[in-house]
Amino acid sequence: MVKRVAIVGIGTTGFRPITPDVSYRELIFEAARKAYTDAGIEPSEVDGFIAAAEDFIEGYSICDEYCPDQIGAVLKPTHTIAGDFIQALAAGYMMIMTGAFKTVTVESHSKASNIKNVDEVLGFAFDPVYNRPLRETPHAIAGLEMTRYMFETCTSSEQCAKVVVKNKGNAMRNPYAAFGADISEKDVMNSEPISLPLHRLDIAPHADGAVVAVLADGDTALALTDAPIWIEGLGWCTDTPTLEMRDWGEAAYARIAAEMAYKMAGIADPVGMIDFAEICDEYSFKELQHMEALKLCRPGEAAHLLESGATSFTGRLPINVSGGALGVGHLFEASGAHKILELVEQLRGHAGARQIPDVNIGLAQVWRGVPTATGAVAILSNM
Amino acid sequence: MKLEDCKLGGTHLKSSDFEKCKVLTTEWTPNLGYAWDNGVAIGRYLAELKEGKIIARICHECHRIMLPPRMFCELCFRPTDEWTYVEDTGVVNTFSIARVNWDASRRGPKEPPLIPAVIEIDGATKGMGILHMLGEIGPDDVKIGMKVRAVWKKPEDRTGAITDILYFKPVRAAASKKAAAGRKR
Lengths: 383, 185
Hints:
The structure holds 2 protein chains of 2 kinds. Chain A is an alpha/beta fold. Chain A is built from 15 helices and 11 strands. In chain A, a hairpin with a 2-residue loop joins strand 5 and strand 6. Chain A is globular, with a radius of gyration of 19 Å. By secondary structure, chain B is of the alpha+beta class. Chain B has one domain. Helices cover 15% and strands 26% of the residues of chain B. Chains A and B meet through helix 1 and helix 3 of A and helix 2 and strand 4 of B.
C-alpha cells in the first residue's frame, strides 16, 4: 500500500485585526490546544514539531527558539521553516514519509498588529543595491505586476475590483474572518489610490491569528479519526529574486508549484478534478493571475470566469469561499494555514453557513507576498 | 565543468586596496519597530512588579508554581489555574562575572564588573525564578546557593518592567530570617 499522510486535527483562534488581549504565546496555545483536542492526541505523544515563522516579522533574532512551549514541543524534535505554513506542511509530510515520525504538529501564526512599521519591514526585503535606494513602496511591486498582468491578459481594474467584492462578501459567511463587507466595484475603484492601478481596497489588510494542524501517517490517522483529510499533492518553488529579470505578467512560481502538486496527486485535469480552491488574493488581481497559473482556466480567462459567477460561492468552481486574504486578512506566514484550515473544514463538512455541498478535493495555494516570487500549493481530499 | 573553470574571474584584492578605500560595500540601517502585546501572564507580572510584588502562576496538574508566570503549562499542556504571590528573596543558582557590556565594549578599569545571576525565588518551584543582576557585592564573594533579596526602585520610578527591581543583594543569614518573618503576607 502506498503510504499516505493525513491531517487528523486542526485548531485556530480565528482572525482579528488586533489581539491586544493575548501574547503571541497565549494566542498560539489556544490554537494548539484545540488542535490536539480535535485530533484526540496529547503533544507528549507527538513525534515532531514544525513552526513557520520569520524573524523580522516576529521581531526576534532566531525566533525558532521561542516556538516550543506554546505547541507542547519542549525537549522534542522541533524546527522552524522561514516560509509559509504550506511549506512547513510539506516538511511535516516528508518527516512522516521517512518513517521516523508517525505524527507531526505544524504551527503558524500572525501577530502583524505588533509590527509598528510593516512597510519598513517589507522594504527591508528589497535588494539593497538595486531597489532599496529608490525607496519605492512595497505595494509598488504589486502595482507593477498588476499593470503587466492586465496588459497581457486584457483584464481591467474594474474586473480586479470584482474579486474584492466577491471575497469580502464571502467573508460575511465566515465567523473567522475580520474584513467581511458588502461593497461594490465602485467602492473599490473610488478607494484611496495606493500604487496605481492598485487602490486601498485591492490590498488585503493584515490580521492576527494562529492555526495548528496535527499530521499523522495513514495507519495512525485511521486509528485516531473516522474522517482524516488526506494530503494528496504538494508543490513549492521560488523564482529569481531579481526584480529586473522576473516574468511580471505570469505567476510562474504558482504554475510550477501547481504542476508539482498535480503530478504528485495524479491530477491530469485540474478543472475536472478540483472541487474548490483557496488561492492567494493578497492583492485583488492575484486571485485572477493565480487561477491562470494553477490551470483552473486559460490565460486571460480568469476575469471572465469571475464575471460569469463560476468562482462565486454557488458557482461550479468556488474560489475563496472563506473570504480569502481580502476578507479574512493577510496573515504573513500563516496565510497558507488559513487556506488549509478552510479546506479541512469544507472537506469535513464543518464549514457551516459557507459549506459548499459535496466537495471531495480542494486546492490551497499561497504566495509569500511582495517582493517575493515564492509559491506553494497543497491538494487535500476526504477520500 | 572542470574545477578551475568554476572561478568567476577578476583580480585578487591587496591590502593597499582596502587602505585606499577601493573596496566598496553596500550599507543599510533598518528602522524596525515592534510593540508586543504582553497578554494575560506577562501583563499581570509586570503590573505586580510595579507594585513591588512578584506573582507566579500555579498548575494544579503538575503542581509547579511557575515564575515567570504563564497562562498555560507547557508540560501538562493545559491552562494554568491560579495566581500566587512569591517572595522577593531567593538563592543564586548560577552567575557570571562580566567585564564587558552588553554590546561587547570593555568596562572601564574603575567600573565594577556586572554580575548577572539566575535567582531561584522563594515560593516558586525549585529551578524557577528571575534572571537579574547582583549588586552590593564584590565578584569574589558571589557563591552558588547564596541568599539574595530584591532591591526595588522607588515606587514613583517604577514603570512595570523587569528593571523595577534594580538588582538583588546578599542577605546575611540572621537578617534573612528576621526579614522573612517581617514580610509574611
